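Chapter summary example.
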Amino acid sequence: MSETERLARRFEEHRSHLRAVAYRMLGSLSEAEDAVQEAWLKLSRSDAAAVENLGGWLTTVVGRVCLDMLRSRATRREDPLHDQHGRLRLPDPIVSNADGLDPEQEVLLADSVGIALLVVLDTLGPAERLAFVLHDMFAVPFEEIAPVLGRTPATTRQLASRARRRVQGSAPAPDTDPNPDQRRRIVDAFMEAARGGDFDALVALLDPEVVARSDGGTLRPGLLRRGAADVASQAIMFARFAEAARPALVNAAPGVVSFARDGSPLSVMAFTIRGGRITALDILTDPERLARIDLSVLDG
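The structure predicted for these 300 residues follows.
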């Protein structure tokens, strides 16, 4: 085995972890793959024999690559929740069979990284996001994060602390009930009420301050709705277009994939549930991005 092959094998041992880091940093599966590939290119051009902790070195390299990508994004748009054309943009959902995750998805979604949390992470500045993700989610010491940001460890700690307060204040906390069957029943009841046009039943399932976000891409307008009554009305209207709905896990939480009459995917819906009520509903309806999701996992 050549030295390059040996190095590639060592890199592959860290690939799943690096994808998890990049996904939390970028909220995009394709961009996460690009960041991981860039890390491999940097490693292949470096003196790997001088690297004592390859996993730590690669984590900070991926962090630096993602930081540059986030800074590039920031120059193209003003509102962190919208793309350069002003459209609402949701993070990429990770869809799996309702019965459970495969091993690779388990690594990618460790610590229950839901869509609602990724939405909040997207409102952080690039430096704040890096400090928070690497330290709070992956336990990277501030002393190792600081050089990536060109800051002191103390300043990096302050960035993470500020990000932590924003996340805790903005991200709807997931339900502490460990019983997924209960959450699935709530999602199923929501879908049944929406298809049946039962407005009162929908309102009863929704938190009064529920937030619903819909990303339709270039062909369908994105929507942001707040409040149980408004969200319930939209759910009834949307349900008229869906021919069928399949239960799924969306970022490891109970969700739904809806299909049109021709069998094409119409939406991926992610639910955040707290105290037995739906507190956030994130819906991807962008046909281009839906086409890139492997929905064959629902047949497993």
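To summarize the output: The two ends are 37 Å apart (CA to CA).
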